[in-house]
Amino acid sequence: MGLSKENLKGLILALVSSGFIGASFIIKKQGLRRAAAVYGVRAGVGGYYYLLEPLWWVGMITMIAGEVANFVAYAFAPAVLVTPLGALSIIVSAVLADIILKEKLHNLGILGCIMCIAGSIIIFIHAPKEQPITSVLEIWNMATQPAFLAYVGSVIVLVFILVFHFAPRCGHTNVLVFTGICSLMGSLSVMSVKALGTSLKLTFEGKNQLIYPETWFFMLVVAICVIMQMNYLNKCLVFLRKIEAVLLPDSSFELECREV
Asked: Based on the domain organization, do 115 and 207 belong to the same domain?
């Protein structure tokens, strides 16, 4: 697939984003460890002393920078190209955890990293070339096609079922419930972030898209999706913390989860 200058910018931003986000988890974890060692109070028991630890803030700033780069990448490259590259942050975290935190990366972990790289390369090679977009109204027209509306409707129905039926009953015993909610909402947030990023890019180029209510609608969808994903991602981490505490009481992973 030939890359245009726009797509190349998006590709570079997506790679930078993955590097920053992957590294941020390691930096934050180091900050949490240092705060726990200095103040003797962990986040999991009500301690917020990690907020006084500069290293933790370095991790937060690194994560924010990565998320901003990822957001801007959607304005330059197709979502089908940017989204899979986000998986590379897992590889960055795994490698840095092995080197810096001395958390041994086992054979299955190495196999998972290889599969992430292979999947990203395959999608990158076969990613379609994006047509130039001159207005948010074009994205709105595509987003209101019957096929996509049917998909959105099915996602919303599934999310409601998971949130109101399965989450109260088995959400705290089966992590797939919370991850399912995050994944389904993520599929909608990708489309909305792409639309919002493109709108802002066109606005900065002198074609004001803020005058269209569709732009603000996409912004609202992004906000709702992000809030829901953060909420249920935290629930996932709490669930994993409990499992890890039972299986590996002394695991350093527990400290990271206790930030929640």
From this structure: no
